[in-house]
Amino acid sequence: MLGKLLVRYLMPYRWLLAVLLVFQLISAIATLYLPRLNADIIDQGVSKGDTAYIWSTGSFMLIISLGQIVAAIVATYFAARASMAAGRDMRNDIYEKVSGFSEREVSAFGPGSLITRNTNDVQQVQMLAMMGATMLVTAPLLAIGGIIMALRQDVGLSWLIAVAVPLLLVMVVLIVSRMVPLFRQFQKKLDAVNRIMREQLTGVRVVRAFVREDIEEERFGVANTDIMVVGRKVGSLFVLLFPLAMLVLNVTIVGVIWFGGIEVDDGSIQIGTLFAFMQYIAQILMGVLMASFMTIMIPRAAVSAERIAEVLASESTLVRAENPVRDFPDRGAVRFDAVEFTYPGAESPVLHGITFEAQPGETLAIVGSTGAGKTTLVSLIPRLFDVTGGSARVGGVDVREADLDLLWRGIGLVPQRPFLFSGTIASNLRFGREDATDDELWAALEIAQGRDFVEEMEGKLEARIAQGGTNVSGGQRQRLAIARAIVHQPDILVFDDSFSALDLTTDARLRQALWRELPHVTKIVVAQRVSTITEADRIVVLEDGRMVGVGTHQELLETSSTYREIVDSQLAVQA
Question: Does a structural domain hold residue 153?
């Protein structure tokens, strides 16, 4: 999986890799040639006192060294460009894939895990690509080329290479084989830390309200300790490799000096040749060590690649139709025919046989007790979920056959928990429609009863909004979300309990403005307060996922006991 992922994202930059390969070859050849020149200076220049030869060969060595440095820098530069570009493309693809996920896929992976996969996991693969691009050619050339050059210097000492290299490889294999499962555990522990941190930051008010700081700190401490334990095991194996490798390198050099000294003493080889052989031995083992470093990175990157591939291979349950319908003959109409919906893994459906319709310009209200399925029902209109039975039709077209972009363009959704993005009030409102003018923004704020407080803010439309809208109150956040949906200019407005944060007076004024200014827009209103929906053209009453009543406010008072109970309970509370 790792190989496929690297090929997929590095192939568009193969010209960079080709240039990189050329400069790595130059760098490796220069590195291999320098010990030979060094041996010549010792054997031909120093031993014979030939100063001219020393200066000429030394100058040539200096030029080669400078060329090797330049080639290494250029190769590293192109490796960085290719790997960083591949990482960028990878993050873009993951983001686009996740953006197309339904609530089902997001819940299956978990937001924390998806964030980790698009950051830490991509970084691991990206670092492997960069290190691999710089070492993948250099390490084999140094190892293989070093062996060839060493044998040219002295075949009699080659048995030291035959002992040292396999010994080093065996140590690397043993250590890396133990690191693979640890890396997999580490990524899962990292997911857990991110998830807990995200929950605590999002729910900080709840944590403080219930005085759960100590318990949450303990929960985070457990997850943090878990990742520390796994990281310590990985680190212990990691630091063990290099001392062992250096031990093998130093013992091998000692062996070269010992046995090479005997050959120098009996005149079999010259001192310069012995020094060159020592340098080649060091290059061979350094090449193996560089390859070993790569093998350490590969297991962790392989785990990350599997996690990335899992996201990229996941298909959203919101499958786009092969031949999507782009013409909506009855714009603004909503019709449910015997709709059923079951959450994945649930034992029974959440919605059973829901049938109703809303004509263009009408107001359809949905009311019911907590857990009756109201939010689930309205989520089926913009196709956040797919029905598991029956059909949901918008504009006269089954939402599963409609072009999703056109479907969403015709629907303005105000969720139960409004979310604002960091930026300004204007940028948040233009999230609904980028080309909206300032006058259109003010008109939408007027309808949403938000003009007054926006005018009082410093900067007005350019007033800053913190991430999530945390610097405005719940009611202000709710009204900005409603204004954003109005700016969208949809055929259908869906309010999922969007008036709950408003006082009764603001609620009434907002509804009157909606009915007056947007008479052509179909309004689907989920509400807890009966006063919000008394003027609706049709009210659907839900209980345990079933429709137990449909009609106007007066009709339901006469025919639906469930609706009467809701009304009576609210009147009793008000009394």
Answer: yes
Total-model pTM = 0.65
Give pLDDT, residue 116.
80
Mean pLDDT of 152-180: 75
Dist CA 130 CA 301 (whole Å): 12
Going by C-alpha positions, the residue among 39, 115, 29, 122 that lies closest to residue 75 is 29
Pairing of strands 522-526, 492-496: parallel
Q: Per the domain annotation, does 260 fall within a domain?
A: yes
Q: 297: which residues sit within 8 A by CB, 6+ positions away?
A: 124, 127, 128, 131
Mean pLDDT of 550-564: 83
Q: Which of 313, 334, 365 is the last residue of a domain?
A: 313
- Same structural domain, 525 and 472: no
Q: Which residues contact 441 (CB under 8 A, 6 or more apart)?
A: 425, 426, 429, 430, 461, 483, 487
The residues pairing with 413 across neighbouring beta strands, listed in sequence order, are 494
pLDDT band (50, 70, 90) for residue 126? confident
Contact by Cβ (8 Å): 408, 328: no
Residue 309 lies in domain: 2-313
* Share of residues in the chain with pLDDT > 90 (%): 0
User: What digits encode the pLDDT tens for the residues 6-50?
Assistant: 878 888 888 888 888 888 888 877 877 777 766 666 666 666 666
Three-state secondary-structure class, residue 421: coil
E strand or H helix at 106? helix 103-109
User: Does 60 fall in a domain?
Assistant: yes
List CB contacts of 550: < 8 A, sequence separation 6 or more.
Answer: 356, 538, 539, 540, 541, 556
For the cut 80, the answer to whether the pLDDT of residue 225 exceeds it is yes
> pLDDT tens digit string along 266-287?
766 677 777 777 777 777 777 7
Can you read off the two tokens belonging to residue 329? 């003959």
What is the three-class DSSP state of 339? strand
CATH number at residue 123: 1.20.1560.10
Nearest alpha-carbon partner for 333 in 294, 362, 354, 375: 362
411-414 β-sheet, strand order: 397-398, 389-394, 334-341, 351-358, 546-551, 538-543, 363-368, 522-526, 492-496, 411-414
Residue 404 confidence (pLDDT) above 50:
yes
In a domain, 318, yes or no: no
User: What is the reported pLDDT for 575?
Assistant: 42
List residues bridging with 493 in a β-sheet.
412, 523
Question: Measured in whole angstroms, how far is the alpha carbon of residue 449 from the centre of its chain?
Answer: 37
- Total number of domains constituting the chain: 3
Give the per-residue pLDDT at 43.
Answer: 61
Q: How far is CA 340 from CA 351, 377, 405, 443, 516, in A?
A: 5, 9, 24, 39, 34
